[in-house]
Amino acid sequence: MSAGLSTSYVARNLMARKLTTILTASGMALVVFVFATVLMMAEGLRQTLAGTGSANNVVVIRQGSQTEVQSTVTREQANLMETLPGLASNAAGQARISREVLVLVNLPRKDSSGLANVVVRGTTAHGLEMRPQAKLVSGRIFKPNSSEIIVGSGIANGKIGLKLGDILTFGLRGWTVVGVFDAGSSGFNSEIWGDSEQMMQAFRRGAYSSVIVGLRDGSSYERFAEALAQQPKLKVDIKRENRFYADQSEKMSDFISILGQTITVIFSIGAIIGAMITMYASVANRTREIGTLRALGFRRGNIVMAFLKEAMLLGLTAGVIGLVLASLTQMVQISTTNVQTFSEVVFNLVMTPEIIFDVLLFSILMGVLGGVLPAFRASRLEIVDALRST
Amino acid sequence: MVTSLNNQFTYIFRLARKNMWRHRLRTGLTIAGIAVAIVSFGLLRTVVDSWYAGAELSSSGRLITRSEASLSFSLPVTYGERIRRLPGVTGVTWANWFGGIYINDKNFFPQFAIDDSSYFKLYPEFIVPADQLSAFQSDRRGVIVGRKTANKYHFKIGDTVPLIGTVYPGNWVFTVRGIYTGADDKVDESQFLLHWNYVNETIKTVLPSMADRGSLFISNISNPAQAATMSASIDSLFRNSLAETRTETQKAFQLGFIAMVDTVLVAIQTVAYVVILIIMAVMANTMAMAARERMREYATLKALGFGDAFVFMLILGESLSIAVAGGVLGIVLTFPLSRAFFSATRDLFLVFEVTSFTLMQQLGSAVFIGLIAAIAPAFNSRRISIVDGLRAVT
Q: What are the Cα distances from residue B364, in Å, to A30, B40, B187, B324?
């Protein structure tokens, strides 16, 4: 009898008491749903910000300033950077370097009275070239030296809801939306782009916020960094562009993960209790059946395994239902303030194979925790007593 | 008639209670589950309430003026004087976000560069001993630290605190000259206040464009009921200038901050209700099992002449008793747990109090869980005829 009890026997036991199985599984499925959405939210935020920018670009900001908004880089510093080795050049032989201005502008959110801090980036033709992932979906690119702007699709579709032809007033000027761009799932999607020099004039700034430089090849980063370090006039911090934005998601996604996991742990106690009640009932209802099985020669271990399998199957069913529900939330777009940069970020919930694996493991574990005590109670029943019970 | 009805209720209740304890383990587990759910519901509700509580407490007689474009822009410091000259304004001060890093960016406390002569007049709830205040005023590198931050980082009077500037570049060194306490326990005791003058002089030589600027202007008005018109008249002072302003009450200003993270708050709220759903499924399961096991008993009762209503009440009574027992246990546990949660997350919340509304919601949810769980089995018991019930196999 080493083969133990068959899986179909286990499955049929769950089917026999439909209402109880459905109720328990749906309670557990809700926990799984919460767990999965939290993981998806943290992952979505991480992917969005990590997907911003490329490893071939370097962001240069003032030493210690941490974010582009707080940073200032003077014209002289930017000119000096242009002469350093390691920079890529375009067809016309100019160094690939974009002098950018970044400001936060308050725009009203449509669904509430709150204001969003939207990133307005003054960029250049080089800057647009260096972000090939940003593709125009409607309208056209802003004309150089004009008060025209293009908006990311997150700003166009989400809570801010800007349309082509809208006029925004900031810096004592009206700015016309002439295009909408889509930069995939990246932080650029939550930005507004315009002409760098015009933005500087409008905001009366004498200095840039950051300088983005394009690297020539894989080994250029080190050369550029070394050359930069030898310039005493350049007190700056540099990071590869993708790394720079990924670091900005750290605090927020950590916060979501910790909060979500704490909640999930508490919730799962409730669901485990539910599974335990169901499994105890399953044992109690089948006392005679268990006695019969034992009399037929099945060992205690077989009985334990059968009940554990039943609990695991219950957990797995809940896990699958929860995952299916959670995958529907991928449609949801979240618009919130990144506490680290104080600016609006729009992102989607993202499901990954790792999340699916983690969630299924978690749901089976919930089942096992709920089933282990009842399974041992079942195995401890004496054959004679079990057969005699009513 | 009334007494007989009363008697019947007492009887049903006693029978329901007896029934409840027939499956000690199952009932115990269910009560524990409900208690866990009610506790977490209460904690989540309190987390959301506490976020808003900070804003509720702020004085309505204080207005905050900042750049119209966004907080990342500063205003000329001369705006302070122009606001002060408005009739109805009794005092003005200003503060700049300093945002320095203490050792590494894991250590966070809010730092403001303040005007040393006027700031504490506008914030009477920040209590600084007179000798410490004058020591602060006579040392331009001096700082006044809130008690909470001082305790957390073990700052004592006379200690030097190095900060790495983010908004204002450079390495800064400050000396703790005073420690302020809140007038009551609802005052933010975490701020680190340094001299605006010192920062301004230093920055003038490095980044002249950042000098003589203030990011927040705080003004006291004589009549808080006039807050809206006063805000409008401040803003109209600077309309069509290079730096337009947005003025609102301190409360509105803080609610604006909260609105930025309202997605998170909405998520927490939703989750609080999901936990009730989860436990509802668990409880409904318990009742379904109990009723299924007792089909024969219910049929027997009916055969003896008890009506459908009696059986209905019996099931409802049992369900409600379990749910309310779990609910009360949960409410009782909410208090020690919220205290523990508050002391574990001291930096996050100013106040963390379980409101009576939360308690009512907790009790209401428990009753609701009990009612919903009883519906299906109660109707089932009515549907089944006596003969079928007696014949039922469990």
A: 21, 15, 33, 9
The pLDDT of residue B393 is: 61
What phi and psi, each to the nearest 5 degrees, are found at residue A255? -60, -45
| A240 is a domain residue | no
Is residue A130, in this structure, part of any structural domain at all?
Answer: yes
Closest alpha carbon within chain A to B208: A206
Same domain (yes/no): A93, A142: yes
A103 and B263 in contact by Cβ < 8 A?
no
Task: Work out the average pLDDT over A326-353.
Answer: 87
Average confidence (pLDDT) over A362-375: 92
Q: Which helix (H) or strand (E) holds B236?
A: helix B227-237
A237 Cα to chain B: minimum distance (Å): 12
* Domain assignment of residue A341, yes or no: yes
Taking alpha carbons only, the member of A356, A351, A85 closest to residue A228 is A85
How do residues A208-220 score in pLDDT, each as one tens digit? 999 999 998 878 8
Interface test with A, best of B51, B70, B296 (most A CBs within 10 A): B70
> Is residue A38 domain-shared with residue A113, that is, in the same domain?
no
Nearest to B285 among A41, A235, A278 (CB): A278
The residue among A173, A202, A234 that closes a domain is A234
Number of domains in chain A: 2
pLDDT for residue A213: 92
Of all residues in chain A, the one with the smallest CA distance to B68 is: A106
Measured in degrees and rounded to the nearest 5, phi and psi for residue A114 equal: -65, 160
Examine residue A345 and state whether it is found in any structural domain, yes or no: yes
The answer, yes or no, to whether residue A1 has pLDDT greater than 50, is no
Structure confidence at residue B35 as a pLDDT band (50, 70, 90): very high
- Taking contacts as CB-CB distances below 8 angstroms, the residues of chain B near A204 are 242
Parallel, antiparallel or unpaired: strands B171-182 and B142-146: parallel
The last residue of one of the domains, among A234, A260, A290, is: A234
Q: Which domain holds residue A313?
A: 7-50+250-388
pLDDT in tens, A317-337: 999 999 999 999 998 888 888
